[in-house]
Design a protein that fits this description.
Radius of gyration: 21 Å
Bound molecules: inosinic acid
Distance between the termini: 9 Å
Oligomer: single chain
CATH architecture of the largest domain: 3-Layer(aba) Sandwich
Number of helices: 12
CATH superfamily of the largest domain: Adenylosuccinate Synthetase, subunit A, domain 1
Shape: globular
Number of strands: 20
Strand content: 15-25%
Length: 433
């Protein structure tokens, strides 16, 4: 039996989709454990692209159980669209999907409030740069114990009461933010649509926590798939420029309702450089042409919102923090191929702040903005063979780069990705073994 958590080590978009897809070969159950349709995981299988927002990236392996954990916030309409898209490709047709009855639900008014807050914040230079998918408002209502859960979609009278109470609660805020307060007919329409969606989702719903616990007890291989990355964690990330969920490995236990003693291994995913979407400090960001070159080379545009991602050099102090926060025992390096042909590569090895050298980012966002990255320069490489299957197949400078990261992060690589396709991978350690 092995229970493995895959977690983003940066600000999300590390290429978790590809890694989870690969690890799913060995897994029996794949569990998405946090966030909602703010995530976008791009999978390329035999040249064909599939972007998932809610369904675990393990979906491309028919017959594997795909679970949406109770810690998620789920937009039922987005989920239905995604299920339909998967089924058109012959996936999820054997009843593989299980949606936790305890997961919270995102309805149109959560997205309305998210968008209004962002617009209002932007006027004061205080926007977070959210995905506007209603994630923050849904988690707020959950914490305030006014949330709506998947199980409520299956109970018409209860749902009507809850939606009406939610909209009543939010009406003053919506008005304050300059929005149009929803009418009774909006509320009725949203409720009817949610009930209809609930009926369609009903066959896929169940006790996700128990299902995962039983799988572990029976000795199955279970893979937890994180969304976003450690630096966007609501408690430990670059607050307030974070998402609203626990993105670190601990979030997996919380979402599925299992104890930390059940976890065998934590794998962190890091890109060979850094990206960030939305606002917030990003000390190694490259501006102007240099940033644009990296963005183009890596195709760094949001899979969910299409926004151009901010790009910069790899930040090892931030990576070390991710390793510490999630107890990562190994790392998967993605998009190493993107750096080929871009000249010498820089990597941030420490920060300087008020005359002191720091080996992890300062936790106060104002300090992080002031902190000065200290870089090491590594000779670049012109091309990376996409048929590299062993670390020795890499050109010497790329190997030196990999070894530097490994040494300074303090954990070994279990995998190095040299292209988007499943096959374009150097496999080093099997986390399930
Ligand atoms: P929210 O999760 O939509 O509330 O957005 C909060 C912050 O997290 C924003 O900076 C988003 O750009 C960022 N974010 C949320 N989901 C992702 C993701 O999947 N990848 C990268 N950034 C994300």
């Amino acid at each position: 039996m092995s229970v493995v958590i895959v977690v983003g080590a940066q600000w999300g978009d590390e290429g978790k989709g590809k890694v989870v897809d690969l690890f799913t070969e060995r897994a029996d159950v794949v569990v998405r454990y946090g966030g909602g349709a703010n995530a976008g995981h791009t999978l390329v299988i035999e040249g064909k692209k599939l972007v998932t927002h809610l369904v675990p990236s393990g979906v491309c392996h028919p017959g594997k159980s795909c679970v949406l954990g109770d810690g998620m916030v789920i937009d039922p309409h987005t989920l239905l669209d995604e299920i339909a898209e998967c089924q058109e490709r012959g996936l999820l047709v054997r009843g593989e999907l299980l949606i936790g009855l305890g997961a919270h639900v995102i309805l149109p008014y959560h997205k309305l409030v998210d968008g209004l807050r962002e617009d209002h914040g932007a006027k004061q230079g205080k926007a977070i740069g959210t995905t506007r998918r209603g994630i923050g408002p849904a988690y707020e209502m959950k914490a305030a114990r006014r949330g709506i859960r998947v199980r409520d979609l299956l109970k018409p009278a209860r749902l009507r009461e809850l939606v009406a109470a939610n909209v009543d609660d939010l009406a003053p805020l919506i008005a304050h933010l300059g929005g149009t307060v929803p009418t009774k007919s909006d509320v009725a329409k949203w409720t009817d649509e949610a009930l209809a969606a609930g009926e369609r989702l009903r066959p896929h719903t169940g006790e996700a926590g128990r299902h995962v616990s039983h799988a572990i007890t029976k000795g199955r291989h279970v893979l937890f798939e994180g969304a976003q990355g450690c630096l966007l964690d609501v408690d430990h990330g670059t607050y307030p420029y974070v998402t609203s969920s626990s993105t670190i490995a601990a979030g997996a236990c919380q979402s599925a309702g299992i104890g930390p003693t059940q976890i065998d291994s934590v794998v962190g995913i890091t890109k060979a450089y850094a990206t960030r979407v939305g606002e917030g400090p990003f000390p190694t960001e490259l501006h102007g042409d240099a940033g644009e070159r990296l963005r183009k080379a890596g195709g760094e545009y949001g899979a969910t919102t299409g926004r151009p991602r901010r790009c910069g050099w790899l930040d090892l102090p931030a990576l070390r923090m991710g390793v510490r926060l999630s107890g990562m025992q190994s790392l998967a390096l993605t998009k190493l191929d993107v750096l080929a042909g871009l000249g010498d590569v820089q990597v941030c090895v420490a920060y300087k702040l008020d005359g002191k050298e720091l080996d992890e980012p300062p936790t106060d966002p104002e300090d992080l903005v002031r902190a000065e990255p200290i870089y090491t320069r590594i000779a670049g490489w012109d091309r990376l063979p996409s048929d590299a299957r062993d670390i020795t197949d890499l050109p010497a400078p790329a190997r030196a780069y990999v070894e530097t990261i490994e040494r300074m992060a303090g954990v070994p690589f279990c995998l190095v990705s040299v292209g988007p396709d499943r096959a374009e991978t150097i496999r080093l350690i099997d986390p399930f073994s």
